[in-house]
Amino acid sequence: MPMPEESPKRPLDDLRGLSANVLSAEERVRSVAMLEEDCRARLRAANRREAAAWAKVQSREDWERFRDERIKALRESLGQFPPAPKALDVETTGALEGDGFRIEKLVFESRPGLVVTANLYVPNPPRAKMPGFLLVHSHHNPKEQGELQDMGVLWSRLGCLVLVPDQISHGERRQQPFAGREDYRHRMALGMQLHLVGESLMGWMAWDLMRCVDLLLSRPGIDREKIVIIGSVAGGGDPAAVLAALDPRITCAIPFNFGGPQPETVYPLPENADEAFNFAGSGSFESTRNLRLSARDGFLPYVIVGAVAPKPLIYAHEFAWDAARDPVWKRFGRIWGFYGAADKLAACHGWGRVTLKPPDASHCNNVGAPHRKGIYPHLERWFGIPAPKEEPQERRPAEELRCMTAAVAARRQPKLVHYLAKALSLERAGKARAALAALAAPERRAKLRSGWARLLGDIEPKGTPKAEARGKDGLAERIVLTTDDGATIPVLLLLPTSPTPLPSREREGEGESRDKGSTLPTPSLREGGGSKPFVVAVAKHGKAGFLKHRADELAALLARGIAVCLPDVRSTGETDANGEPGRHRRTVGPSSTYLMLGETLTGLRLRDLRGVLRYLATRPELDARRLALWGDSFAEPNVPPVADKPLESNDCPRESEPLGGLLALFAALFEEDAKAVLLRRGLVAFEAALCSPFVYVPHDIVVPGALTAGDLADVAAALAPLPLRFEGLVDGRNCAVSEPELRRWLEPARQAYAGREERLVLKPEVTTEGASWLAAALG
Question: Which of 565, 580, 544, 681 lies closest to 623 in space, CA to CA?
């Protein structure tokens, strides 16, 4: 006779008082710092690798080979540049007359739909031969800021054309309705969105600036041999340097705060700065300051700036500078020396430190008058541009310098970046989807595996993680796994106390589980001992989140004789640093650094999860062929209509936490033994992050180029006929997706499951049926 079923109440009672902690307090502190320490170690290795390569540069030929390889990699990392327009459709929407100069208000397209607004300062009267200046503003202020006006006025009076465009996301090219600091805070969202389609914010900025050079060169009287780019402090020097490295038409570069020591660098530099200095830099929310693949492929900031050689360069610093020990300055000396062009290399700097206030430090918004004094002598020496006798005092109100009019906007219909990115996603994901459709199912899955492995980074575990038992209390076994790259993964393994048959109504073969949305085969009896099926459950909030929010379902699985493994992959659960949402989340820096190194944090966490599966396969009491994956989120979705707010306001909409669903879905793609996937409150599609300028998705789940391989629905489709259940999926603004929209987003998966519809369950809400569905799928 079959044994009576154990009531789920018994394991539930055991779970209610269970602590999720596996690590000691000291170990938790170390584990929370694990990501940052791993990033530092990887950056040190990258710096050592590049130092060894630099040591072989002994001649001009060596340098040019070294440079060309890295600048080629830089260009490829930025995305796919569109064809250059044959002619810019430049529209002058107004002009302002000044004493010895005129300001033209210009509008043009840098790529279809992407409108650029710019002020052009023109000598009045014009000269027969006019040098051209391109000023790249900082992330602080757009083109109308006073220091930018000063430079436009002073150099136009001296006979130069001076072009000052708005960068993407700033000024008249603002991507959201809030002004001030929101312009630069929004750079993170733009970087994430463009990365998803295989592009980059730096690439789009550089392309804009190339078209600005086109504009300058189209002007009558321009001196093509004297095109100077100045990149302002705080986010202007970066794109200016990249443009100078990529565009041979630039004849002089003056990038501030890029290439070497930064305003935050502690002076004096150490005696061994040549060995100790971090040439690669590190990640932050601004993708333009930590270029993807730069540390892997060697296009470090100093290489980008050095690529200007032998043209004139002013190596510019906002604050004090330790010239004697700056290892980048020494490298520049060698590079320009290869060309016998030491006279074309100069520097300028301010005073004090970024932590001090004026007048003790030379803070500026773009390029201040004290900094310009260090620039004037070199421009006169190289180009015959005289220093001004006095600094101008003719600043105009910002509104007078604005270029876009209602009539021009109505005619041109400028598009926001997310709109253009979505158009690219439809094209690129559609192309990938068409290529997949031409393949048989096994080849389709193989192609998706290779494509996603390339995008995710190193996702293959190197052997089985080292396991250390930390004791057992009740039904929970505590284990610490250590991966081959040193990541610590605390694990709770919940084991049923005894094998348990299923309820009589399910044994009688009614043909369906208690979930009316599924008609999966019912589980078979598990008589006596033997290995048990198991579920591996992952979420950003880790095992503690499951014990707090899903204890009933965990208990139900245990009561059915199904083991449950709750691992905290790196920087989740017990090892998560938490922190504020948005750009201040403590995973943003490491996530960006991993992109520099050619990895993704999502990929490294997938590697952790697959390592956990390798370990579980060694456990004799578990049946590795009867494995289900459960990816969940306990973050509450936003309720429409969502009122978007400034990104750091107290009532900003909530971020989603779709990591668990992504890991479960990708693990099922790469692991043959997965028998079912339950995914809750995951991201419905990467494309869903492109439907609004606002993105309430963590930076650390972004996979650059994801939409060039298809989308999540294509991964789901490749798993057919594996039982899949999606509940409560959210969009890019962390709003629950309605049933019609859910069906639309997952249409490729629905097509793949045609004829086996019962194996694909789509629920717009989170249900309580997950445990019964998983049990049925594992039967």
Answer: 565
Q: Are residues 360 and 456 in the same domain?
A: no
Query: 224: Cβ–Cβ under 8 A, 6 or more apart, which residues?
Result: 217, 249
Query: What pLDDT, in 10s, does the model give residues 299-333?
Result: 999 999 999 999 999 999 999 999 999 999 999 99
Residues 383 and 531 in one domain: no
Give the residue among 342, 280, 279 at the shortest CA–CA distance from 309: 342
At 18-32, the pLDDT tens digits run 999 999 999 999 999
Tokens of 346: 């100069």
- C-alpha span between 661 and 770 (Å, rounded): 14
3-state helix, strand, coil in the chain (%, to 5): 40, 15, 45
What is the three-class DSSP state of 709? Answer: coil
Please identify, among 415, 449, 482, the residue that sits at the C-terminal boundary of a domain: 415
624 and 729 co-located in one domain: yes
Same domain, 322 and 443: no
CA distance 125 to 585: 53
Q: Is residue 193 in some structural domain?
A: yes
* DSSP 8-class letter at 552: H
The CATH number of residue 613's host domain is 3.40.50
* Alpha-carbon dihedral sign for residues 246, 251, 256, 262: positive
- pLDDT range class, residue 12, cuts 50, 70, 90: confident
Best CA proximity match to 153, nearest among 405, 315, 369 = 369
DSSP string, 25-47: HHHHHHHHTHHHHHHHHHHHHHH
Q: How many whole angstroms separate alpha carbon 279 and alpha carbon 23?
A: 35
What's the total number of domains in the chain? 2
How far apart are alpha carbons 276 and 400 in whole angstroms?
49
Measured in whole angstroms, the distance separating CA 199 from the mean position of its chain's CA atoms is: 11
Give residue-wise pLDDT tens across range 649-677: 888 999 999 999 999 999 999 999 999 99
Q: Which amino acid is present at 79?
A: G
pLDDT of residue 14: 79
Which residue do the tokens 């429409």 mark?
640
Place of tokens 């579920």: 535
Q: What is the CATH number of the domain that holds 329?
A: 3.40.50.1820
| Domain enclosing residue 89, as ranges | 69-415
Q: Which of 39, 42, 598 is nearest to 299 (CA)?
A: 598
* DSSP code per residue over 279-333: TT----S-GGGS-TTHHHH---HHHHHHTTTTS-EEEEESS---TTT-HHHHHHH
Sheet strands (E) in 483-567: 488-494, 532-538, 563-567
Q: Angle 659-670/441-456 helices, nearest 10 degrees?
A: 130
Based on the domain organization, do 441 and 355 belong to the same domain? no
Place of tokens 């061994």: 272
Most confident of 172-186, 454-468, 487-501: 454-468
- HSE, CB side, 13 Å, CA atoms: give it for residue 196: 34
User: What integer pLDDT is reported at residue 225 of this predicted model?
Assistant: 98
Q: What is the DSSP string of 113-126?
A: TEEEEEEEEEESSP
Given CA atoms 3, 4, 8, 13 in this order, what sign does their dihedral have? negative
354 lies in some domain: yes
Taking the C-alpha atoms of residue 695 and residue 647, their distance in angstroms, rounded to an integer, is 10
CA distances from 122 to 92, 390, 762 (A): 13, 19, 61
Computed on alpha carbons and rounded to an integer, the radius of gyration of the chain in Å comes to 29
On whether residue 101 sits in a domain, the answer given is: yes
